[in-house]
Amino acid sequence: MWHIEHNKIIIDAKEPFDARKIAVSGQLFRAHSRDNSYVFYSGDKRCVVSRCNNRAIIESDVESLAYFIDYFDITTSYHTLNATLRRVKIPLLSEAVRYGSGLRIIRQNYFEALISFIISSNNNIARIQKIITSLCTSLGVKKDDFYAFPSAEAMAARNTAFYEKHGCGYRAPWLCKAAKIAAKNNVLEDIAALPTPQLLDALQEFDGVGPKVADCVALFAYHRFDVFPVDTWIKKIYTHLFGASPSAQIMRRHLIETFGHNAGLAQQYLFYYYRTRGK
DNA sequence: TCCCAGGCAAGGC
DNA sequence: GCCTTGCATGGG
Fold it and tell me: How many CB atoms lie within 10 A of CB A22?
């Protein structure tokens, strides 16, 4: 349960919500700790999440509160979701859910997620964060004391050399093309109404977006749980769990069959468990 | 130093 | 359809 009090979102102690886990989960790339709290940025918005009496407290501009209720999926009970997920009989899943309890699937800005996950391909999280931060600083609108994620128009106005200079490597032309398309029309908003398979196809029309990046954008921006991003970590996990190493496509199909409409959430717990706990 | 990272596109079969 | 290769960059 949750409520709003003095323009803050208050989340009850028993509802799983852990800002630290969410910040380092790899879903998003520009959250950081500050004092005893975590600062999250999305598009041109920002909020601060702290804890008090074991409750999570989300603070932002009054006009952004509704946005962050949606962003953190506050109206969904992860207490219930986790209980459902633990019933799937897969080795270590129950342990991974317990270990990652407090993680949530974030509803990110479409354009930010698309650009971020194009940058993510064959890249490591520390470097992805660094590149995105530098793009925000150089192309984003300055808010009071932070920079917004760049608009599609601002990104479209730069050439590949600019993105190469910011460490994007061979992804530079993909970023230019994606920004130009997004700046010209409303595709990213329009495809939000599509069923998941068609949404994934539409996302893969973008250069630099293959099956894995499409799954990440569908899950972390469009909130589709019937996907399962298979990256290098998941491949290791799969081999560890099932003692076989089929193609990523086969792994994905098997995992979606196994977890059904909670596949995306299960992916997040397994990814977090293996990446942060080691092994 | 070397291996690897939230993969993808292109080319060969 | 599936499999292989080349790819920019820098973190650890």
Answer: 22
Question: Cβ neighbours of residue A241 under 8 Å, at least 6 residues apart?
Answer: A90, A91, A92
Q: Does residue A142 have an active-site annotation? A: no
Q: Residue A20: phi, psi to the nearest 5?
A: -65, -45
Tell me which protein residue sits closest to nucleotide B7, measuring alpha carbon to C1'.
A121
Burial environment of residue A111 by CB neighbours within 10 A (0 to 12, 13 to 18, 19 or more): buried
pLDDT tens column, A148-164: 999 999 999 999 999 99
pTM of the model: 0.98
Q: Is the CB of A16 under 7 A from strand B?
A: no
Question: Catalytic residue among A212, A235, A236, A279, which?
Answer: A212
Say yes or no: Cβ of A108 under 7 A from any atom of strand B. Answer: no
The reply to whether A180 Cβ lies less than 7 angstroms from strand B is: no
> What average pLDDT score do residues A96-108 get?
98
pLDDT digits (tens, 9 = 90+) for A23-40: 999 999 999 999 999 999
CA–CA separation, A177 and A183 (whole Å): 10
Here the tokens at position A93 are 């899943």
- Whether the per-residue pLDDT at A279 is higher than 60: the answer is no
* Radius of gyration in angstroms for the set of CA atoms belonging to chain A, rounded to a whole number: 18
